[in-house]
């Protein structure tokens, strides 16, 4: 079993109030590199920090790592536009860091990354893949991508209070600046990610399309960003078995999730890691609505549940956090 | 347990008669990328070929992969100057493909790669590492590096008949073209790899120095190229526990190996995978002196032996070959 984390950046995250994936805006750019290292090595190696939210909630990458220690799946990192060198080994698909979506052409590498990731996804020998993402600011770009595809699903937030109005203004700015209108990219998903998206959506959707084309079952581990990946894959014409495996915290935040997955012929699996328990320590922030998902956490919990190891996730995650 | 494969290229391999690591000279440049993919995925993914020697001997990467399937260790690939994109995730240390050592400055990235790999090696959390290499033509550059350090050890060959005279002529040419004389780099190993070496030796020796500096036990999995890495690390002043784990085929080819490891305070472990048995199929070429080592094979056999799984290596390698 292989879990692929697509890790990258968009400068959209640097706007005040957009993301909780880093204690400060300066550290946001390091979060995906650090998440990748935590999955691979169990701790940051080259990245100077362990990602926490401004309120101190630990990164979901620690949960994914814990599930890996319990279940033993392989991890592969795809460079979906990392801004800082990662000590984790990465597969290159030609993605570069995304600019702010208020720019006219924020992700010029998107079509190339989509194509290279598709080839890569097609050539992987695995029968089943779990695919997740780590990109601060990614729910804002996902919202814009839904609009570009002509869809209107809400996106979640790593912040306990979703800054919906701020995100809607940023999305509006993105369409004002770009060549495309809402709905205009329904048949050209590469253009949606290029003009109003981010390099992780481009790389992840290409990867998923290639995997589906070679009859690989794909489990998307994540929330509304991975839902956007499913939408992009379906708009690219990819058929085949897609599951969205997410956390109970994300599902509680987005009541429309079940309707949205149905609309894209995606099975929905929701897993509750039980971080509301008395012994969950700093993980109880998840039960309070911080972070909720990310770094393939929902997919990792799904794998832990399949292996009858869900009970061990809280304790093992706390062990991981202790070593960080 | 983590096994790190440093994978790269030197155009020295394109000289006629230097290397068996590829059926043709055109395919040589793909061999390290394919070896990395075989270790990670069990088969080539982006690389267009499965490496075999001109006589059809399968790549030692298949043996290392088999040991991984038996023992379950983690694999990390360091890009030590790959010339072709690999579908295997890689850690970048800034190494670029090496030019022919007949050039004046064949590896200008060597000092930078040495330094970045040293930082990376220092920051890895593992208590023990196995380090190996895959670079066609690497025994010729290793011979030149020994001379630059003022040492005179022989190097092995992936060919059944070691082209010693050809290699000696190439090494002489390297010193004629470069700024350094034999023995002149005894205290500056980065310059030995820069002027007469290759990017894999630069990256691997930096990695080993960094690992030793952070009290990690290092097992060098390989033959005379990994012996050159040990020499470079000792010349860089690194103390600490070093073991060279090699195959019986390599050890039989280089009777001076035990003296050479002693001279560098390196423990020598020799493992016989038993490919002379009747059921070894195409692996019997190893017993006839083809390939002998490479892609961390000796280190992987050592791990298999430690896990009491050596008996399974022949059968599992044949299974791996069937899937290639």
Q: Care to describe what's here?
A:
The structure is a homodimer. Chain A has about 325 residues and is α/β, with parallel strands linked by helices. The first copy, chain A, has one domain (about 1-315): Nicotinate-nucleotide-dimethylbenzimidazole phosphoribosyltransferase (CobT), large domain (Rossmann fold), CATH 3.40.50. The first copy, chain A, has 14 helices and seven strands. Chain A has a seven-stranded parallel beta sheet, with helices on both faces. In chain A, helix 3 (about 60-70) runs parallel beside helix 13 (about 295-305) and helix 3 crosses helix 14 (about 315-324). Chain A is globular, with a radius of gyration of 17 Å. The two termini of chain A are about 25 Å apart. The interface of A and B includes residues 119 and 126 of A.
Question: Any chance you could write out the topology, listing elements then pairs?
Answer:
Two copies of one chain form a homodimer.
Chain A: E1 2-7, H1 25-28, H2 31-41, H3 61-71, E2 74-80, E3 90-95, H4 110-123, E4 128-134, H5 138-148, H6 164-177, H7 189-196, H8 199-213, E5 217-221, H9 224-235, E6 242-247, H10 248-253, H11 257-263, E7 266-271, H12 284-287, H13 297-306, H14 313-323
Parallel strand pairs in A: 1-2, 1-4, 2-3, 4-5, 5-6, 6-7
Helix pairs in contact in A: 2-3, 3-13, 3-14, 4-8, 5-6, 5-7, 5-9, 8-9
The largest sheet of chain A has its strands arranged as 3-2-1-4-5-6-7
Most extensive interface between two protein chains, with residue counts: A-B, 25 and 25 residues
Distance between the termini of chain A: 25 Å
Q: C-alpha Rg of chain A, in Å?
A: 17 Å
- The percentage of residues in β strands of chain A lies in 5-15%
Topology-level CATH name of chain A: Rossmann fold
Q: What is the helix tally of chain A?
A: 14
Secondary-structure element order of chain A, N to C: EHHHEEHEHHHHEHEHHEHHH
β-strand number of chain A: 7
Seen as an oligomer or otherwise, the chain set is: homodimer
Q: Tell me, what is the CATH class of chain A?
A: Alpha Beta
- Main pleated sheet of chain A: 7 strands, parallel
What percentage of residues of chain A falls in helices of 4 or more residues?
Answer: 40-55%
| Average of the residue pLDDT scores of chain A | 95
Q: Which CATH architecture of chain A?
A: 3-Layer(aba) Sandwich
* The CATH superfamily title of chain A: Nicotinate-nucleotide-dimethylbenzimidazole phosphoribosyltransferase (CobT), large domain
